[in-house]
Amino acid sequence: MNENIQKRNALLAQKVAEGLKSRNMSAYCASDREEALKIALSLIPEGSSVTMGGSVSAGEIGLVSALKEGNYNFIDRNEIADKRAAMLAAYDADVFLSSVNAMTEDGELVNIDGNANRVSALAQGPKKVIFIVGMNKVCSDLDGAMKRARNVAAPINAQRFGLNTPCAKTGACMNCKSPDTICCQFLITRYSKHPGRIHVILVNDNLGF
After folding, report:
1. pLDDT tens column, 140-174
2. In this structure, which CATH number among 3.40.50.300, 3.10.310.10, 3.40.50.10420, 3.30.565.10 belongs to the domain 3-203?
3. Which of 26, 46, 146, 169 is the right S-S partner for 199, CB 3.0 to 4.6 Å?
């Protein structure tokens, strides 16, 4: 990443972190993927039950591999035949991993889901939620974050899952009601009711979609 972009991101991350803290969420600024991994692992005690909501970002910083290789009870829904059981296990997990589809400079988190297993677990259930967020997902305000989620994240995810949605073909949200739509549930996390539950690691890199 360009050095000037990194400097700008580092300054912006401090602003975002203050916004998160004002919303009762813990914030951490990582200079790169390696530091992000160290921070994430410091938040997950050995022996913890850990699952996730399909976060590409968690994989990109090496967190998924570290959990599989370490002393953790990592519940990988891709390796469990009963997908419903794997999804339900998330609600009683010690730690739930995710990223965001977008977020605001003031610390509001935006997530869109098709099956709602991810957004429902983010809202309620797991004891601790850890978000891995690349600075490419930070938008100036909530309107910009919603537009990013619908016009950047959703089309890319629809394409990578091979879904037959208008956005997969056009690259932009068509506000569709397609049977394949992944824009079924929208979650805006503007405040954490429970101190110490939500942790956001801001990574000075481009991660996920």
Report:
1. 999 999 999 999 999 999 999 999 999 999 999 99
2. 3.40.50.10420
3. 26
